[in-house]
Design goal:
Its main location: membrane. Its EC number is 2.7.8.26. Belongs to the CobS family. With 260 residues, the chain is mostly helical. Helices cover 77% and strands 0% of the residues. Helix 4 packs parallel to helix 8. The chain starts with a helix and ends with a helix.
């Protein structure tokens, strides 16, 4: 039986967030629908991050505290899963070992030096970028949090497209790898980029719309570079690679949103 939109939403929220959503189907059709719905989960995460940062700003908190709060929400709503994936991917890539050994390193529970450095730099970049936009206005900071979360989950949709193989026969990466048709991924990308542009337009300027759309496009390009490197290096994608791709897109989007 083909998966319904409800199946897709349950899969997206049940696997990409800690929200109490029960996944009722765990098959390729449900995974396809779920990864197509990933940007919707990103929207909810982004709105939560924007709400906390915006409320703190309106209560008189400084832009740095608002930025830290906005960065902490996606981490909390994913139990740090994507950040952990970013660190593990950095350890695997930085090890310089053959694919099989690198994948084994990524499965270990500890974090190596490459992972620690990458994690620290990524979080610093996110906080620094959000601090800058919150200093400009609370609205711009809140919108940046939304665009970043949206784009991060769009990167997951694109990474799940047909033609991107799994590196292992098991795990979440294998469950969702190559499930999304290329046309479906491109359609999700077009809708999300338009949504990011619309979010930027809320600031009241045409440049804001261009900046929002450009942030989504350039962030997905950065995530695509990492994805292709991981496929060459590991022979495919894993759950950790998906996390690394999402955090790369989130960070890149925030950096682009500081321009101008």
């Amino acid at each position: 039986m083909p998966a319904t939109p409800a199946d897709g939403l349950r899969f997206a929220f049940g696997t990409l967030t800690v929200l109490p959503v029960k996944v009722t189907r765990w098959d390729r059709d449900a995974a396809r629908a779920g990864m197509l719905c990933a940007p919707v989960a990103g929207l909810v995460v982004g709105l939560a991050a924007a709400a906390l940062g915006g409320i703190l700003t309106l209560l008189g908190a400084g832009p740095l505290l608002a930025a830290v709060a906005s960065v902490s929400v996606p981490a909390a709503l994913t139990r740090g899963l994507h950040l952990d994936g970013l660190a593990d991917t950095a350890d695997g890539l930085g090890s310089g070992k053959p694919a099989e050994d690198a994948l084994r390193i990524m499965k270990q529970s500890d974090i190596g030096p490459f992972g620690v450095i990458t994690l620290v730099l990524a979080l610093l970049a996110q906080v620094a970028a959000l601090t800058e936009v919150y200093a400009d206005s609370w609205a711009r900071g809140a919108l940046a949090a939304v665009v970043s979360a949206l784009t991060a989950r769009l990167a997951l949709t694109l990474a799940s497209r047909a033609g991107v193989p799994p590196a292992r026969p098991e795990g979440l990466g294998a469950a969702v790898a190559a499930t999304v048709p290329v046309r479906g991924a491109l359609l999700a990308a077009a809708v999300t980029v338009c949504a990011a542009g619309a979010a930027g337009a809320v600031t009241g300027s045409a440049y804001g719309a261009v900046r929002g759309a450009a942030a989504a496009v350039l962030a997905c390009c950065a995530a695509e570079l990492l994805l292709r490197h991981c496929v060459r290096r590991f022979g495919g994608v894993t759950g950790d690679v998906f996390g690394g791709v999402a955090e790369t897109a989130a960070t890149a989007a925030l950096v682009v949103l500081t321009f101008g």
